Amino acid sequence: MHFAYLLGKVAKWLLGCLLLLNIRAFPMVWHVRVFRPIIYIWISQFVFNMKTIFLSKFAKEKAFEQWIDSLTPIGESPFRSTVFRSWASIDESDYNFHLSNSSYAKALDGARFKLAAQLLPKFLIAGGLIPLAGTHFHFVREIPILAKYEVRVTLGAWDDKWVCYFLTYVVIFPPDFWQQKANASKDKKLSQENVSPSFFHAPINSSGVSMTSTPLNSTTPVPPTDMDKIASKLLAREEPDGATLHTITISQMCFKMGRITVPPAVVFAANGLSVPLESESNLDLDLTSLDASNNSYKKYSHFNPPPHWDNVNKIASKLHGGSIKKLQTFFRGGWRDVPAGDRWWEQAMGGAVEQQRQRNLNTLDLLRKGMEGARDIR
């Protein structure tokens, strides 16, 4: 009897550990992870309602509009990015003790939805949907079990009809990255305090590793060949902040209001996204050059909204004669009734944003054409 009791107790502990290790696979856990940004908004709205419960109708509507606008990225670049953090749990790893292929898709769901909640709150509040048309993976290296990783997602490009490309970069920081960064910061501070700069002092690579593909032990310097340069770039695969790139994905998505497809430019402009207020004429554009972190990007703001924002308020704001219902009607096809010369979303998505879109689209659209061409291969 004692042995049977002990065996039952051990079985219960094993069962409890098994359930705990697989808790992220439980029903509704995926939904909580993906819809977490919306849950935060619901909680914020509940708190707002409690705070304004004794205000007059007009004051409450005004406060509500201010609250909605605080969530809206007025004046931001459409090429904004966000970070979704996760880790390779046991239930999401395969027999090789790496993050399984299917688990990447689960992480991308959360990352894309987080970016959508930040970029397009008015579209989501109006009942808009963002269905996925396809995702393409390029695996650079595996993610070990229990490793923490970041999914960095950004808007890449869109066409004039419906296709919208989202780019994601799955990265990992080295285990001792933050400690090394802290030590480097301390060393830099000490060197600035104790060593006076000299014109004759050449920069030294403190890591002791050559930054070129040619060893530095030769008495005669040999310039690297083109193949050396290419190999060096392929082997590095590091992000600017020191993270190591593990996976790149490209997702094709579209915007729907019911069964009606909404052009991406209309959705972006209606959510306050805009061309920069001012940008340098010699701006070297790349996939993220119009992100808010770029110093050359001077944007509009909530206090200085872009010119087209008055048009959005007339449609969506109760204080300006609009409503959510009118915004839904506009997304369902009302934008077609706006005369060609008065289409404010074209102005909002013009200039430097249009240049960036065209440049990115020329590259990313090759993927769509390749996949469509694959249909004819049998």
Head-to-tail CA distance between termini: 66 Å
Order of strands, main sheet, comes to 1-3-4-5-2
Radius of gyration, in Å, reads: 26 Å
- The helix-strand sequence is HHHHEHHEEEHHEEEHEEHHHH
Largest sheet: 5 strands, antiparallel
State which percent range the strand residues make up.
Answer: 5-15%
How many beta-strand elements?
9
Task: Write down the overall mean pLDDT.
Answer: 79
Inertia-based shape: globular
Number of domains: 2
CATH superfamily of the largest domain: Hotdog Thioesterase
CATH class of the largest domain: Alpha Beta
Would you summarize the structure shown here?
With 378 residues, the chain is of the alpha+beta class. The chain is 43% helix and 15% strand. The chain folds into 2 domains: 1-34; 72-175 and 242-374, Thiol Ester Dehydrase, Chain A, CATH 3.10.129.10.
